Amino acid sequence: MTNKYLKIFNDIVDQIESGEVSTNSLLPSENELRIQYDTSRETIRKALNLLAQKGYIQKIRGKGSLVIENGKFNFPVSGLISFKELADKMEGSVRTIAHDVSLIKPTPYIQKQLQLTNKDLVWQVIRTREINGKKIILDKDYFHQKIVPELTKEISEDSIYHYLEKELNLPISFAKKEVTVVEPTAEDRQFLDLEGFYNVVVIRNYVYLEDATLFQYTESRHRPDKFKFVDFARRNH
């Protein structure tokens, strides 16, 4: 027998996908849904939580459950792919905005991430990724200046990886990645469209050349409603 919360979930999904409940509208309150489906508040909360997990709604403090566009982009966690390569597979308008491209002395944190000395410099690149008019990714990249001697705003708004591989002939090979979910910082709220969202998905990348030289550290900070973080796994026998 199907659990009641799954029946409620499926019913609301049908209403959303049929257009009976439109994108950017609010679902009835938990109490109204409890009365409508003649069930407990806990059952309604389970159904709403599943709707949120599947990308149909976003819970907004003080407002309720907002029906959101369910067209999520696949983001390959295990792959090493540039945003431009990913954007070429997306529908709609895509734009990269470079807010800062500068050669700096790294902070102690960045120095630790890139295993630098006190004398090393890094290129700091702060970029917003805008998809269909919404700023949904904040990329903070740091490149070892000894490996990447020059960067420009024009390169950063096009494709840094294309420049590194085709112009500098750098053999980019592999990366170590860490994925966390955190509360947005003031910087996140400055550069991203986060109204109503109270967490961001952060992917930290440590990128290496073929000779295992660590040359790039990246924090890619994503609005949670637009991406599915996917991977491929094979069981070893």
UniProtKB/TrEMBL annotation:
<dbReference type="InterPro" id="IPR036390">
    <property type="entry name" value="WH_DNA-bd_sf"/>
</dbReference>
<keyword id="KW-0238">DNA-binding</keyword>
<feature type="domain" description="HTH gntR-type">
    <location>
        <begin position="2"/>
        <end position="70"/>
    </location>
</feature>
<dbReference type="InterPro" id="IPR036388">
    <property type="entry name" value="WH-like_DNA-bd_sf"/>
</dbReference>
<dbReference type="InterPro" id="IPR028978">
    <property type="entry name" value="Chorismate_lyase_/UTRA_dom_sf"/>
</dbReference>
<protein>
    <recommendedName>
        <fullName>Trehalose operon repressor</fullName>
    </recommendedName>
</protein>
<dbReference type="InterPro" id="IPR050679">
    <property type="entry name" value="Bact_HTH_transcr_reg"/>
</dbReference>
<keyword id="KW-0804">Transcription</keyword>
<dbReference type="Pfam" id="PF07702">
    <property type="entry name" value="UTRA"/>
</dbReference>
<dbReference type="InterPro" id="IPR011663">
    <property type="entry name" value="UTRA"/>
</dbReference>
<dbReference type="InterPro" id="IPR000524">
    <property type="entry name" value="Tscrpt_reg_HTH_GntR"/>
</dbReference>
<dbReference type="Pfam" id="PF00392">
    <property type="entry name" value="GntR"/>
</dbReference>
<keyword id="KW-0805">Transcription regulation</keyword>
<dbReference type="InterPro" id="IPR012770">
    <property type="entry name" value="TreR"/>
</dbReference>
